[in-house]
């Protein structure tokens, strides 16, 4: 749902998003247009929580960086702000933990896809801003698509089902997760 037709800057958006009347709304900024994200389904939010758990269990003991949750926002361009369902940002990037917005793209962005969501548009936004890998998670179908850009800037996708093992690639070397463990029974 588009909130207004006016194009907003990040600063204008953050002021509006942090207003008390918007405290319970999940807002994102796409090319200057404020978009209200619908509430997540129970299945999607449980799936995101499971992914966050497995990622934290790998990242924290190794002091690799940070896993952010759905209200963690990333500036992906001058007029684009997204809140992935989960994300990883490497400690090696010397991220400043003060403030509200990560002023850089995450290394890994995870979106648990809702019906009608344009995940390819979001994936391009993340990847063009510097994200290395996007995991598009389809909870109802119990599959994960790993999206990345190839050397020509084209979107490349690989699908993982419940019989497969997902890995962290070059972003989280050594991370492995049975896809079946991501989804509740």
The helix/strand class is alpha+beta
The biggest sheet, with number of strands, parallel, antiparallel or mixed sense and barrel status, is: 6 strands, mixed
Distance between the termini: 32 Å
Fourth-tier CATH superfamily name: tt1808, chain A
Shape: globular
Secondary structure tally, helices = 4
Number of strands: 13
Q: pLDDT under 50 segments (min length 5)?
A: none
Named CATH architecture: Alpha-Beta Complex
Domain count: the total is: 1
Percent of residues in helices comes to: 10-25%
Query: Order of strands in the sheet with the most strands?
Result: 3-6-8-9-10-11
Say what the CATH topology is.
tt1808, chain A
Radius of gyration: 16 Å
As a percent range, the share of strand residues is 25-35%
Q: What is the CATH first-level class name?
A: Alpha Beta
How do the helices and strands follow one another from N- to C-terminus?
A: HEEHEEEEEEHEEEEEH
Kindly state the mean pLDDT as a whole number? 92
Characterization of this structure:
Strand 1 and strand 2 form a beta hairpin. It is built from four helices and 13 strands. The protein has a single domain (40-182), classed as Alpha-Beta Complex (tt1808, chain A), CATH 3.90.1570.10. The strands form four sheets. A six-stranded mixed β-sheet has the order 3-6-8-9-10-11, sandwiched between helices. The chain has 185 residues and is α+β, with helices and mostly antiparallel strands. It has helices at residues 10-17, 42-62, 119-129, 179-182; strands spanning 26-30, 33-37, 65-68, 73-77, 80-82, 86-90, 101-102, 108-112, 133-138, 143-149, 155-160, 165-168, 172-178. It is 24% helix and 35% strand.
């Amino acid at each position: 749902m588009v909130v207004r037709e006016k194009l907003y800057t990040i600063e204008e958006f953050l002021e509006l998003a942090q207003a008390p009347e918007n405290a319970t709304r999940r807002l994102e900024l796409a090319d200057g247009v404020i978009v209200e994200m619908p509430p997540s389904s129970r299945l999607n939010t449980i799936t995101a929580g499971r992914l966050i758990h497995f990622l934290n269990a790998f990242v924290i003991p190794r002091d690799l960086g940070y896993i952010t949750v759905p209200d963690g926002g990333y500036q992906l361009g001058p007029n684009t702000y997204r809140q992935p369902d989960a994300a990883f940002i490497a400690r090696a990037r010397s991220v400043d933990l003060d403030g509200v917005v990560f002023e850089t793209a995450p290394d890994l962005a995870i979106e648990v896809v809702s019906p009608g969501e344009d995940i390819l548009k979001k994936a391009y936004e993340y990847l063009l801003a510097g994200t290395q890998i996007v995991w598009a998670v389809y909870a109802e179908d119990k599959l994960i698509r790993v999206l990345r850009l190839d050397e020509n800037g084209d979107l490349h996708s690989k699908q993982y089902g419940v019989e497969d093992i997902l890995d962290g690639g070059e972003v989280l070397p050594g991370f492995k997760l049975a896809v079946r463990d991501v989804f509740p029974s």
